[in-house]
Design brief:
single chain, 139 residues
């Protein structure tokens, strides 16, 4: 995802649609490779009875991160348009800066993940999956 965002730092008024599609595809591929494992770790690290809660919390964290990211990057872009003149040069400069920050944050996150997330995940210590009350007591 970070590489795709960094590609956007080279946007100009003459950038082709093919370039945009390639950069967006790279971001999409990165997102696809990211979302599944993150949710698997979140759901797999809790007891089965809490899997729905872990999944929901993972989605809330993802949406909160996206919301904050858009707000911060929008503020960076807006800071370049502070004069009130939305001409091409300040807009592209702000866009380049925003995408540079976004790409660097994404790549820094991937480096931190590589360094600090263990390669193998120990199975969680779950309580026995068998009911504590005999089945005959439920009748």
């Amino acid at each position: 995802m970070g590489c795709g965002l960094l590609l956007f730092t080279s946007l100009t008024t003459e950038t082709s649609y093919a370039f945009l599609i390639a950069a967006m595809a790279l971001i999409g591929i990165g997102l696809a490779f990211n979302t599944g494992p993150v949710m698997a770790v979140a759901v797999g690290s809790v007891v089965p009875s809490r899997a729905g809660l872990a999944s929901g919390l993972g989605n809330v964290a993802r949406m909160l991160g996206a919301t904050l990211g858009v707000a911060v990057l929008g503020a960076i872009l807006a800071s370049h348009l502070a004069g009130g003149h939305a001409t091409t040069t300040p807009f592209l400069t702000g866009l380049h800066t925003a995408f540079l920050v976004a790409g660097c944050v994404e790549l820094a996150g991937s480096v931190l993940a590589i360094l600090y997330i263990p390669r193998t995940i120990a199975p969680p210590s779950h309580a026995p999956l068998e009911p504590s009350v005999p089945v005959s007591a439920h009748r």
